Amino acid sequence: MRELRGNLTRYLSEARQGTPILVTSHDSVIAEIRAPSAELRPARQQGALRGQIRMAADFDTLPIQPAHLATLATLPQHHRDPFDHLLIAQAISEDVVFVSDDRNMPHYEVRLQSCCDA
């Protein structure tokens, strides 16, 4: 179990690649970590929500400005999503609240609001 805790990220990566991981305790298998079968993975259907999402009439877009790019250049790389980085840079530059439940967002100096808070 100690080895599992110390190497969980690597084991999950291996499982994602198709290698099943057996977890043992006192020489007994107590769990198996593996990627879900294709039948268990939800099928993504492109355009499934087309026509079901409406934007409010007072919704404002936020074009990318040079100040956003300057802020973007200073952001640390807590994760690898360049689109998220640009959105964070815009939120910081415009001093607005960023709404997200991404576990990496608290690492950035942005005003953050969970999208699942009641």
Quick overview of this protein structure:
The protein has 118 residues and is α+β, with helices and mostly antiparallel strands. Helix content is 31%, strand content 13%.
Question: What features would you describe in this structure?
Answer:
The protein is an alpha+beta fold. Among the domains are: 32 residues, no CATH class; 48 residues, no CATH class. The protein has three helices and four strands. The strands form two sheets. It has a two-stranded antiparallel sheet. Strands 3-4 form a two-stranded parallel sheet. α2 crosses α3. The radius of gyration is 21 Å and the shape is extended. The two termini are 36 Å apart. The relative contact order is 0.09. The mean pLDDT is 84.
Please give a handful of descriptors for the protein shown.
extended; two-stranded parallel ribbon; 118 residues; 4 strands; 3 helices; 31% helix; 13% strand; alpha+beta
| Class derived from helix and strand content | alpha+beta
Number of helices: 3
Helix content: 25-40%
Beta-strand residue percentage: 5-15%
Poorly predicted spans: none
Compressed to H and E, one letter per element, the order equals HEEHHEE
What's the alpha carbon Rg, rounded to whole Å?
21 Å
What's the pLDDT, averaged over the residues?
Answer: 84
* Shape, per Cα inertia axes: extended
Distance between the termini: 36 Å
Strand order of the largest sheet: 1-2
Largest sheet: 2 strands, antiparallel
Count the E strands.
4
